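Limitations

Structures in this collection are predictions, not experimental determinations, and the ligand pose is part of the prediction. Treat each record accordingly. The example that follows, with flavin-adenine dinucleotide as the small molecule, is included so readers can see exactly what is and is not provided: the inputs are given verbatim, and the output is the predicted complex.
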Amino acid sequence: MLLKEISYVRPHSIDEAVALLNSYPEAGILAGGQSLINVLKMRIGAYSTLVDISALEELKQIRDSAEFISIGAATTYDDIIHSPVVMVSRPILAETAFRIADQQVRNRGTIGGNCCYNDPTCHFPPLLTAMGATMQVYGSDGMREMSAEEFFVGYYQTALASGQILAGIRIPKPKRPYGDAFVPLSVGGTDVLNAVTVTAHVELDEPGTLTAVRVVATGVAPQPLRMTSVEDFVHGQTGQFSDLAGAVATFDMSSLEPPSDVHASGLYRRRMVPVLARRALKMALEQVRRGYRE
Amino acid sequence: MSNTPSVSRSVAVTVNGTTYQRDVAARTLLVHFLRENLNLTGTHFGCDTGHCGSCTVIANGKLIKSCMMLAVQADGAQIETVEGLAEPDGSLSPLQQAFSDAHALQCGFCTPGLMLASKYLLEHNPNPTEEEIRRGIKGNLCRCTGYVNIVRAIQNIAADSAEKGDLVK
Ligand SMILES: Cc1cc2nc3c(=O)[nH]c(=O)nc-3n(C[C@H](O)[C@H](O)[C@H](O)COP(=O)(O)OP(=O)(O)OC[C@H]3O[C@@H](n4cnc5c(N)ncnc54)[C@H](O)[C@@H]3O)c2cc1C
Ligand code: FES
Ligand code: FES
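Predicted complex:
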């Protein structure tokens, strides 16, 4: 489909990208284009100027430090999949990126675009929430940091203000052994269209108790939802903890009001939350016990 | 600011080794640029939503869907399309021959995209399992064949090149 007439510019630096965003009233970022081009075709959203960051090397770096890995917003899924740093420090990022769509989409789509689009079926918002990631937001007044929970504010909504871009994401390196699990309910075939997803993270500390427990459900509320009562139940248990049903039963499923659409009814989504939560916790706990992520 | 947004641009795009210099509107999709400006109609246009893969090409070494990228984004890029697969004398490349031999096409609409996806897969994984093949061509839909012969064509060429000890061209 022919797009509406649009202006295009390819900035040479992140500062120039921000300056352009702030100089042209209806300017927007074009990253991998794997959502935005369709949005423009269907006239769902309208930018009159596209600021293309897809070739900006500054935003495509994966960096390793003692406590974090940092991933530039314009890093593609395929680059994440092939990153040795990710493979050593947080392989769930590569495993999850590998589940997205197909080779063509993975070669163009970016982690930053995935977060800024924030479709409830997007893979990274729930994963980054469960990992306790920090989002680095850059605007004309410099860099600001916020947690993933502060960043993802609603369906297709983020905390980005106009004129700001997501520059990168900082992901903490967990204490080992730890477990990371991503368990989707895919209704369009294997790994296609995740109607509901539960992601879980746990760590085992020195005295042998479970800590840093995070369980996040998505597709059932406007934001990736922390299941805090489940987290509190598991926190402080031993590594042998196995009462998954008991942990999940603490969460009041009736409080959820998930949307109904052609892919799944709200009731189906709600009923799948405890099933997926048990599976995700089980998987993360098995990793802890096997020292899989050691 | 040195860089100002514009509704059209002059681009230089190298397709199958030939560099084309053209003025193109910013709203032009790469697939339309290839088909309509350059008359390279081997790259097909199906769903227009990034799902079917019939517009698949290789851009700067990466397999992509050309309906999901703007032509202006390809400025300076090296693009490979189905027209670049055959040998210089016009005979079929081993990959094309393998598709023909295994009867891996019926109507042929999906075939250019599938051959580029196969080429990309075999360049990255010269000896794929059936599961890896099916994953590798997941972004390319075929309404006719049921995929069995496509998978077979890719298996045959992988086995062939393993025998000859060379990589797929
Ligand atoms: C066939 C198909 C299947 C797909 N399946 C899945 C799937 O299973 N799971 C999944 O998660 N995704 C899926 N996607 C979507 C894909 O992952 C997109 O790549 C992603 O949603 C957006 O990333 P992008 O880099 O392509 O961003 P774009 O499409 O370029 O941008 C998306 C939005 O984010 C904004 N934006 C992008 N980067 C920034 C930034 N750094 N700062 C500020 N704003 C920014 C843009 O302005 C735009 O509004 C699929 C896409 C296709 C075509
Ligand atoms: S036409 Fe591009 S994916 Fe279908
Ligand atoms: S041969 Fe007809 S779509 Fe594949």
